[in-house]
């Protein structure tokens, strides 16, 4: 049988050697499903940022394997950390009433995954405990982890906003079990990417795309959501909504998919439309090698302040 693992790769980071058990994990139904889930949520329908959770997962795994080549637990957790995501990722999670962290725990316990972990003397509970702790993937309350580092690199690259390839920046980055470490210049560059990413995915039109999709789901399912919906792919969910018997749902999907330029958003809240907005932003930073905190640096403070200023409320008007 010809072995070809080129589909377990991505272009941003240097290649990493796959272990046989990692190939098995990547080929489980849970991880393969991530290829059909947009990392950027409904924003992928109207923006150039169209990579899936699968590419992101490979990226996080590559970073983890590069910095922690002998840590099988961290490498396994990197492959499995996103398997609980719903269609269109965060866009519909609250609307459908699910928690992707809880779903991840449930799926990791499945024998399809457990049997592979057991081959390297790991258990699903060990992976779950790792994912629920502060570590190199998640970071700490203040320090950026590898999960978000990949997101900031990948999203800005896809949107054309990056002027240095991530594989060229990695030589200036290190990582401890607390999270990402870099010299001050590189740390500030990473935070510039974080700001660019926030400015895109928290822009009014991308937020509105998520809100329109959530509204269409609410109207279509009308409280009759069952557990099977959580394991749908983006395509399967779109198919359901596009074929809905609810005319308002069809109108919303037509607006979102075919005429996003006609999405009507206003910053003044009148109560006549559908409200949406930003209540939370990501404010973790890399550790700086000289021990200085980035939020104590003048430029670092400025970047964090700009991210904080993106907390705004909007109103969507559907005519």
UniProtKB/TrEMBL annotation:
Q: Which domain of life is it from?
A: Bacteria
The record ties this protein, via InterPro entries, to:
dGTPase-like, HD/PDEase_dom, HD_domain
**TM region(s), chain numbering:** none
Pfam families given in the database record: HD (PF01966)
Please name the Gene3D superfamilies in this protein's record.
Hypothetical protein af1432
According to the entry, every stretch annotated as the HD domain falls at: 53-155
PROSITE patterns for the chain? HD (PS51831)
Full protein name = HD domain-containing protein
């Amino acid at each position: 049988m010809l072995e070809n693992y080129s589909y377990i790769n991505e272009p941003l980071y240097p290649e990493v050697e796959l272990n046989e058990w990692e190939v098995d994990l990547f080929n489980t139904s849970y991880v393969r499903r991530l290829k059909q889930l947009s990392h950027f949520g409904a924003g992928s329908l109207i923006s150039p940022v169209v990579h899936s959770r699968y590419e992101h997962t490979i990226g996080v795994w590559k970073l983890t394997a590069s910095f922690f080549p002998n840590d099988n637990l961290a490498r396994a957790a990197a492959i499995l950390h996103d398997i609980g995501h719903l269609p269109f990722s965060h866009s519909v999670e609250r609307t459908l009433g699910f928690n992707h962290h809880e779903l991840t725990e449930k799926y990791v316990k499945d024998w399809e995954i457990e049997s592979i972990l057991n081959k390297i003397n790991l258990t699903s509970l060990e992976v779950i405990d790792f994912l629920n702790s502060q570590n190199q993937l998640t970071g700490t309350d203040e320090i950026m982890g590898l999960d978000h580092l990949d997101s900031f690199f990948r999203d800005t690259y896809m949107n054309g906003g990056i002027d240095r390839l991530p594989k060229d920046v990695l030589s200036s980055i290190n990582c401890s079990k607390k999270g990402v470490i870099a010299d001050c210049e590189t740390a500030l560059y990473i935070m510039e990417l974080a700001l660019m990413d926030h400015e895109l995915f928290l822009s009014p039109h991308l937020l509105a795309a998520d809100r329109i999709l959530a509204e269409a789901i609410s109207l279509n399912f009308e409280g009759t959501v069952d557990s099977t919906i959580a394991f749908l792919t983006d395509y399967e969910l779109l198919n359901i909504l596009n074929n809905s018997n609810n005319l308002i749902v069809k109108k919303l999907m037509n607006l979102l998919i075919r005429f996003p330029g006609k999405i009507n958003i206003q910053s003044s809240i009148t109560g006549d439309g559908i409200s949406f907005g930003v209540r939370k932003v990501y404010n973790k930073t890399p550790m700086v090698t000289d021990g200085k905190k980035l939020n104590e640096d003048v430029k670092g403070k400025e970047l964090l302040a700009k991210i904080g200023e993106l907390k705004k409320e909007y109103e969507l008007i559907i005519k």
